[in-house]
Specification:
This protein is of the alpha+beta class and 626 residues long. Among the domains are: 2-218, Aminohydrolase, N-terminal nucleophile (Ntn) domain (Glutamine Phosphoribosylpyrophosphate, subunit 1, domain 1, 4-Layer Sandwich); 233-370 and 479-552, 3-Layer(aba) Sandwich (Rossmann fold), CATH 3.40.50.620. It contains 29 helices and 17 strands. It has a 6-stranded antiparallel β-sheet. The radius of gyration is 24 Å and the shape is globular. It starts with a strand and ends with a helix. The mean pLDDT is 93.
Length: 626
């Protein structure tokens, strides 16, 4: 696991200190070593977090005649098989690393080499003879890659902060991206908060030839469609378990201490059960909180799984210092990201790093098998739409009148959002259920100067494009396709990558093995969401592995009492950061609209925690990067 940087000039040589400055910005991604390859107009560099081949795996790595050089971030889980294939084909390998396998594959296959890789990755290869540079990102977007083109050439890196070390890189606010952020709480690829900087989308490569603009090409897309012949649920579950065990086993290769994040849920418990079947030594890590956070503490349920499989179990007990933590997160994320789940993610990664250097996570399971409330809400809405309109109006009035809970729960807010949007057409309804701020609310939030430059339906159009790519998918799988290519990549995986790499911890996600994802894309939606039961398929697949208390308990999510924090602990920071004088100076948000959001939340007339958190994190981010 590392961070990589690339500089390609169109006319003049690259100064060695430029690539070093870029890499110095991401030392946290790779504190163990650094490496650089500077060859005229091209420079590539990296910071290394040593996980595999601790002694000979430093980068850059070259092929036999040094005509190809590579820097690489990630892990290739089938690298041993690839190395055997390469040696049989006459290649001479001088390290034990997965990185070396990629550069030799590229020598043989060119850009097609990416299709042979199983794992998480972002890499850059320099061809000495042509000066071509090829950059690739893994299929699911587990590892990040950003790039920009200036009059001097192309620059790319694992994090935006490296690109901001390059002279001449602009930082113009992208107003459309800003609106997408307030609509979704993240910015979907390929946009970033800066007009001049782009994300390389998952499953894409970028090719830069001398003196020519870079071109981006897609090499993989998940396709959601049923098997040609409808197979029984039992048959599909048997194949899933075989594929899942293979994926988990492949993710256990490491030359450093490895653990698994264990919550009280199905996803992480299944990882532990699979590790036990492989015969692996298992170290489990669970996050715990003081008594006032008892409702969010899952240690008791996690302990059930740890005891069942005899793991070396460690409890990481933290007392959230929320004001300090949000300031750290604002510096960690290079663009605004308003997922409050980043708080517990950062805390568990910080604690885990004291025990291990690699941790397995259950991330991705909810997107594979319909684990979120909004999927269930979509199904309920289909039935609700058949209720007589007069009765629906009465229900809506009653729900809108409900007071906010004093403990900061989201149930009332979800009910209000449901009755407001249940009558919308399918795609618009799903987008509304996925967005904490509808278009009319965002329009009131923005100043006239900002409002004229945003596209209030831009996030909806992202959803529409992703849905249109899946013409064979049933409604459930179409929702999953949207989330796997949007929310999961640009929110959940971004949070996991930045919070873990901020403390130099590698996080692996076996549920996102691309072959497992392709298989699950063929499982019918009615096996994933059945009646009023979310995640039916996975729970049946793991029913013999986990205690009934785990299988049947309500999903709590990786969250904390954000609504209460904003009213109490964070209130001084909110009021100072969103002071009318600052808002007036910046000219983006209407001070009266922001004051109304604060007052509604502080008075408990409405839960405005999502909007308030998004405003707070945007302005704290701006303090560091704008």
């Amino acid at each position: 696991m590392c961070g990589i940087c690339v500089a390609v000039h169109d006319r003049t040589p690259v100064a060695p200190d430029l690539i070093q400055r870029m890499c110095d910005r991401i030392i946290h991604r790779g504190p163990d070593s650094a490496g650089y390859h500077v060859a005229g107009r091209v420079a590539i560099g990296m910071r290394r977090l040593s996980i595999i081949d601790l002694h000979t795996g430093d980068q850059p790595i070259f092929n036999e005649d040094r005509s190809r050089a590579i820097v690489f971030n990630g892990e290739i889980y089938n690298y041993r098989a690839l190395r055997q294939r390469l040696v049989a084909g006459g290649h001479r390998l001088v390290t034990e690393s997965d990185t070396e396998a990629i550069v030799h594959l590229y020598e043989d296959m060119g850009t097609k080499a990416v299709e042979a890789l199983s794992g998480m990755f972002a890499f850059a290869v320099h061809e000495r003879d042509t000066d071509r540079v090829v950059i690739a990102r893994d299929r699911l977007g587990i590892k990040p890659l950003y790039y920009t083109e200036t009059p001097d050439g192309l620059f790319a890196a694992s994090e935006i902060k490296s690109l901001l070390a390059v002279p001449g890189v602009g930082k113009t606010l992208d107003e459309v991206a800003l609106d997408q952020y307030f609509s979704l709480l993240y910015i979907p690829a390929p946009r970033t908060i800066f007009r001049e900087i782009r994300k390389l989308p998952p499953g894409h490569i970028l090719i830069k030839d001398p003196g020519r603009p870079a071109r981006v090409e897609r090499y993989w897309r998940v396709q959601f469609q049923e098997q040609l012949e409808r197979r029984s649920e039992a048959d599909l579950i048997a194949e899933f378990r075989h594929r899942f065990d293979a994926a988990v086993k492949s993710h256990l290769v490491a030359d450093v201490p490895l653990g698994v994040f264990l919550s009280g849920g199905v996803d992480s418990g299944a990882l532990v059960a699979s590790m036990a079947r492989s015969g692996a030594r298992i170290q489990t890590l669970s996050l715990g909180f003081p008594p006032e956070y008892q409702a969010f503490d899952e240690r008791a349920q996690a302990k059930l799984v740890a005891e069942r499989y005899g793991t070396d179990h460690q409890e990481i007990v933290v007392e959230p210092k929320i004001t300090d933590t949000v300031q750290v997160l604002a510096r960690t994320f290079d663009e605004p990201l308003a997922d409050s789940g980043a708080v517990p993610n950062y805390l568990v990664c910080q604690g885990a790093r004291r025990q291990v250097k690699v941790a397995l996570s259950g991330l991705g399971a909810d997107e594979l098998s319909a684990g979120y409330e909004r999927y269930l809400g979509m199904e309920i809405a289909e039935r609700y739409r058949h209720v007589p309109a007069l009765l629906r109006a009465g229900i809506k009035g009653g729900v809108e009148a409900l007071p906010e809970p004093r403990k900061g729960g989201r149930q009332v807010d979800r009910a209000k959002r449901f009755v407001r949007h249940a009558d919308l057409p399918w795609l618009e309804r799903f987008a509304a259920f996925s967005s904490p701020m509808e278009a009319s609310q965002r329009a009131r939030l923005y100043t006239p100067g900002l409002r004229k430059n945003v596209e209030l339906d831009s996030a909806l159009q992202v959803f529409r494009r992703l849905a249109d790519e899946q013409p064979e998918a049933d409604p459930v799988n179409r929702m999953l396709a949207i989330d796997i290519q949007g929310y999961m990549v640009d929110d959940l995986l971004a949070v996991a990558d930045r919070t873990s790499m901020a403390v130099s911890l590698e996080v692996r996600v076996p549920y996102l093995d691309h072959e497992l994802v392709e298989f699950m894309a063929g499982v019918p939606g009615d096996m994933k969401l059945r009646g009023m039961k979310k995640k039916h398929f996975l729970k049946h697949a793991f029913r013999d592995d986990l205690p009934a208390d785990i299988l049947n308990r309500k999903k709590s999510g990786f969250s904390l009492p954000v609504a209460r924090w904003l009213r109490e602990d964070l209130r001084p920071l909110v009021q100072d950061t969103l002071h009318p004088s600052r808002l007036t100076r910046d000219g983006l948000f209407d001070p009266a609209a922001v004051a109304e959001i604060q007052q509604q939340h502080f008075d408990r007339t409405r839960d405005r925690s999502s909007a308030l958190w998004a405003l707070l994190m945007f302005h704290l981010w701006a303090d560091n990067f704008a």
